[in-house]
What we know:
This protein is mostly helical. The chain folds into 2 domains: 72 residues, Tetracycline Repressor, domain 2; 131 residues, Tetracycline Repressor, domain 2 (Orthogonal Bundle), CATH 1.10.357.10. The chain is built from 10 helices and no strands. Helix 6 runs antiparallel to helix 10, helix 7 crosses helix 8 and helix 8 crosses helix 9. It starts with a helix and ends in a 6-residue tail after the last helix. The mean pLDDT is 90.
Amino acid sequence: MIANSSTLETSGGLRARKKQRRHDELVGAAQRLVLDRGLDAVTVEDICDAVGVSPRTFFNYFPSKDDAVLGLEPFAIRPEVAAAFVAGGPTGVLLDDLAVLVGDVLGQQTVTPERMQCTVELVTREPRLLARHVAWVEEHRAEMVELFTARRLVLPYTADPELLALVVMTLLRVSTLEWQQGGGEGSPADHLDDVVRQLRSLLAPAPHD
Length: 209
């Protein structure tokens, strides 16, 4: 029997939700254990035992214990979104198209105010986690620079790809901060348009007296 498209979509949705649930369980267990014992006293095996999975399953989600404790989400831009950007789209306006990339990343992430607060506390306690987070940001900055360089070959622009990477990271961070400061209602993606408006206002020419 050939499954119809709605059945495939439902199946894919269930798998995605199950994967996200397992991801969240691993992060929750890792953070609880580290808050209780300290980073060096917790092993991957401890986290796996708390969730009831094997180390092999753990490493399907995280490359290291530190990544699980930080709750790092995949920094993923869907292939079709990346391809449209490299081709000069979807609008042809660079800032607007950067916002589309950021919205795609934010739309694939799940975060709660409680988890964010816990992560901040853990980073404060364990300086090694801050170093790992900085390294994670650098890894993805390099990926974005490659993406921006590829677009410039198709639709030339004057801005440095390194600058664009900083803009993307800023949009991600400030959208998340505004969401947190707003009480965690909705999602960080809901604040992206406002952050882009703020950035655009900085670039607008000053009114003449």
